[in-house]
Amino acid sequence: MESFQNENHHQPYRDEHLYVDLRRELVTLDCQALNLTHKEYCVLLLLVQHAGETLRRETLEMKVWGHVLSAEARTLEIHIRRLRKKLGIYGKQRIEVILGVGYRFRPASPLRGKGLFVV
User: Fold this and answer.
1) Beta strands per DSSP E along 1-119
2) Average of per-residue pLDDT across 31-36
3) Contact, 105 vs 52, CB < 8 A?
4) Per residue in 43-96, pLDDT tens?
């Protein structure tokens, strides 16, 4: 797997429900730690690091698996589906499918004065 943890900053992502610690590989949802596989964490990390941007599926595959996966395998789609399921009601709110292109993490809006983000 290609190293990508230094791509952006190491500031944690935090909103009213979701917390992603980019240094410790810790993800919590409503203060409960999520049990993510390493690949699920890597996919979420890339999406969070590029919040608001559409990431092409090929880019995600290259960075997480080190090569472009066959379309028939649907490996990325399976990981996204499992990740969205683990994020519960926030999964579809935060991880958008951009048909024919890839995926986008939709960050929450800033909550003034609190240092948090909310929808």
Assistant:
1) 13-14, 18-21, 26-29, 32-33, 54-56, 95-98, 102-105, 109-111, 116-118
2) 95
3) yes
4) 999 999 999 999 999 999 999 999 988 877 889 999 999 999 999 999 999 999
CATH class assigned to 13-118: mainly alpha
58 is written with which tokens?
A: 């090929």
From the CA atom positions of the chain, what is the Rg in Å?
A: 14
Tokens of 84: 């969205």
Per-residue DSSP letter, 55: E
* pLDDT-based confidence at residue 111 (cuts at 50, 70, 90): very low
d(CA 10, CA 67): 25
Pick from 56, 63, 67: which is nearest to 41 by CA?
63
Query: Of 103, 111, 107, which Cα lies nearest the Cα of 13?
Result: 107
- Would you say 55 and 96 are in contact if contact means Cβ atoms under 8 Å apart? no
Enter the pTM of the model: 0.81
At which residue do the structure tokens 């090569």 appear?
A: 67
